Structure formats: structure tokens, C-alpha cells
Amino acid sequence: MAVLKYNNIGISALAACVPLQKQSNLDLIPYFGEKEINNIIKSTGIKERRVTDSKTTASDLCFTAAGKLLNDLNIDRNTIDILIFLSQDNDYKIPATAPGLQHRLNLPKTTAAFDLSLSCSGYIYALSVAFALVSQDNINRVLLLDGETFSKLVNIRDKSNAPLYGDAGTATLIEKGDYGTSAFSLNSDGSGVDALKIDAGGARNPTNENNISEQKSANGDIRTPHQLFMDGKKVFDFTLLHVPDDIARILDITGNTPETIDLLILHQANKFITDYFRKRLKFPAEKVPYSIDRFGNTSSASIPLTIVTETKSVKKDKVILSGFGAGLSWATAQLGLKNCRICDLLEI
Question: What domain range is 326 assigned to?
């Protein structure tokens, strides 16, 4: 079991950026019909999403969020020791996106910069890496940039995915301070690797003339092998089997209960699923914030986006974060956000 604990390391600031352009799920009625779309909205809780234009990348959204965080809080850019960029939609296959962001943000050349990639559990995994780095004597500040533009990775005629995904970029500053004890539980089950996948375009299945055309699945969804596929039932069964137990494990490890936790912040995947988690774990509704209705599923960026948009004025001394998705992978963290400064949401 990969359980990590840290003392007096925490999140000192958060910022988020979303595209100005809104896409209502009602706009998809011509593709799937009014009854089908209304059922999807009811079950997922997603009414609208933010989507980028063709030129804006996940790194652009993160760059904007990072600039606001650094400027609003008057952070000396020379104090950023490490920059981590987390995304499944990098600017290029080569080079990594993080060094370019280091340059664009005018961080010193002594700043280490690297990429991570891990779907909807990725924010918690990346936080655990950032906490581990800051635990070193000579590392004081890590800037974690987490952004996704999944609207570009789905086919508009794929009802399993088109109504779900939105775009966002976030910036999280991690440093030493009076943050108490934090704990992380990190998990994976690669036997489910095919449940949520873009099959073509990588080293295993390179782009060729046989995988660039649209294909129609048995249930009528249309996509190319270069666009996102999801086996909804497998993902649903996986989350119900593992995620509530992992949250309960972190509560036990940290000696907490739903009564002593201020907020349970879940990956914004599907309101039906997350409502089930909340009820099973006996968390009151007021302790489980949602942003999915306005932003959709923004993959790994959904947890920091929810913190920025939904928790600025509420108590958050002790919070549980839980992410789950492709891999299959899932992760839970208990940490404090009492001393976290939250910037206003940016729209570009």
C-alpha cells in the first residue's frame, strides 16, 4: 500500500483559468435527441462546459492561471525551485511542456521543470510528488500546473464522451509552513487499462492509414481511434468498488471521521457516482462541493478548479481530496487548506 505522510508542507495558493466559451449540453440535442440529452444531464449533473478555441492549449490556460497566482500574491519568481506540468494534452510529444512554461513565466534557469501525466487521479499523485520534493532541505517552493483540454480529444457524435468534458488550467503553489500533517493513498489497477483510452497515436499503435478514419461502435458512438474511448460500465464498477474504501482508509489512517472533516472534494466525474460516495461515507451534502454543472469533467484539473470556484469563503482546515480514472488509477489525500490563498477565477 502506497501511503505517504508529510508534516508542515502544504498548499499556500491556488488559481484557475477556464475558457470564456460556454457549450450547453442542450446544444447536443441535434446529435443525440432531446430525451437522450435530458437523461445525460440528469444523471451526470453537467449542464454546460467551457471549451477552448482551436489554438488555445492546456499549457496556455495553466500559464494564465500561474501568472495570476504569482502576480496577485506578489510571489518572487526567483523563489520557485521546481515547476511540474501535469496534463494528458501536452503541447508536443517532444519536448516536454514544462521547460517552455518555465521560460514563458520568466522563472530562473535554476528552476527544475518536468511533465507528469495521469488522468483524473493525477492531481493528487502530482501533489504527492510536490510534497515529497518540498520535504527536501534545499527545496522551498514547487509550482504545480495542472491543465486539460479534453474537449479536443472527443468526437462531437460520441454520446459517451461529448457531453462530459470541459477544459481548464490551474496553478498550485506548494511550500513549507504551518500546515500540520498530510497523508496520501496512491493506487492503480492496470488490468483495466483499456476501459478509458485513446488507442492510436502512441508508440504501441502509431498513426497509420488504418486508424485515422471515424468508426461507429456497437452502441452508435462515432469516433476515431485517436479520440477518447470509455467503457462506462467498467469505469462505473471500478469507482464503486475502490474509491469509497480508499477514502475510508485515509479517514482511518489520519484518525478522522466525516464529522471532523470540513470538505470532501471529489473529482468531478459524474454527480450520480459522487452522490453515491457521499451518501455511503455519510458526508452531509454541504460538505461536498460541486462545480460539474458549470464546467463538466475537466479530468485532473477538476479538483483544484472546484477548490477555486466553490470553497473560497468556507472553512477548510481539514479536507479530503479524491481522484479516480484512466489507468485505472485512484488516489486520496487528507490535508489542510486553512492557510491557502485562493485567487479569483480567470476566464480567457
Answer: 1-348
Question: Which of 90, 161, 267, 340 is an active site residue?
Answer: 267
120 is known as an active-site residue: yes
At residue 40, φ and ψ (nearest 5 deg) are: -65, -45
**HSE of 141, CA atoms in CB hemisphere, 13 A:** 18
Show the DSSP H helices in 10-57 as ranges: 29-32, 34-44
pLDDT in tens, the chain (348 residues): 689 999 999 999 999 999 999 999 999 999 999 999 999 999 999 999 999 999 999 999 999 999 999 999 999 999 999 999 999 999 999 999 999 999 999 999 999 999 999 989 999 999 999 999 999 999 999 999 999 999 999 988 888 888 999 999 999 999 999 999 999 999 999 998 888 888 878 888 888 888 787 777 777 777 777 778 888 788 888 999 999 999 999 999 999 999 999 999 999 999 999 999 999 999 999 999 999 999 999 999 999 999 999 999 899 999 999 999 989 999 999 999 999 999 999 999
- Give the domain CATH number at 140: 3.40.47.10
User: What gap in Å lies between CA 84 and CA 35, rounded to an integer?
Assistant: 43
pTM of the prediction?
0.95
343 is catalytic: no
Catalytic residue check, 297: yes
Which of 62, 297, 340, 343 is catalytic? The answer is: 297
For 12, the grid coordinates are 499556500
Q: Give the three-class secondary structure for 215.
A: strand
Domain count, the chain: 1
Which member of 17, 25, 90, 120 is catalytic?
Answer: 120
